[in-house]
UniProtKB/TrEMBL annotation:
The keyword Cell wall biogenesis/degradation does not apply. Keywords: Membrane, Transmembrane, Transmembrane helix. GO terms for cellular component: membrane. It comes from Malurus elegans (Red-winged fairywren). It is found in: Membrane. The chain crosses the membrane at residues 47-76, 88-115. Its main location: membrane. The gene is Stum. The keyword Coiled coil does not apply. This is STUM protein.
Amino acid sequence: MEPSPKDGESAAAAEPSRGGTAPSSGVVVQVREKKGPLRAAIPYMPFPVAVICLFLNTFVPGLGTFVSAFTVLCGARTDLPDRHMCCVFWLNIAAALIQILTAIVMVGWIMSIFWGMDMVILASKYGYKEQGIPQQL
């Protein structure tokens, strides 16, 4: 008795190939990251500002996140377009306070460094392109 193919497989894909190579099944998988409200509140900043925030977060946990909160008030976009600017500002301040208060047990320091790396990643992907400024670094 042969096993039946699974839901996503075709009968041809379940049979062994005679040519030595397996046929392509053509399945396309899309992965989308779901961000929480604190993570989605990270602003899209210009690249040099994001690097400065990463540097600050590396040596003084939460300071770069605190500075990035003020970029929201200066017009930096976030992944929370339905929330008011002041709400996003306070979410960033809350993230900075969490990083500062938990830095004693190293959790906040590690979180702060990863937060700064996310700022740099967002700035390198979206910072200049969506603002119409040519990237010349």
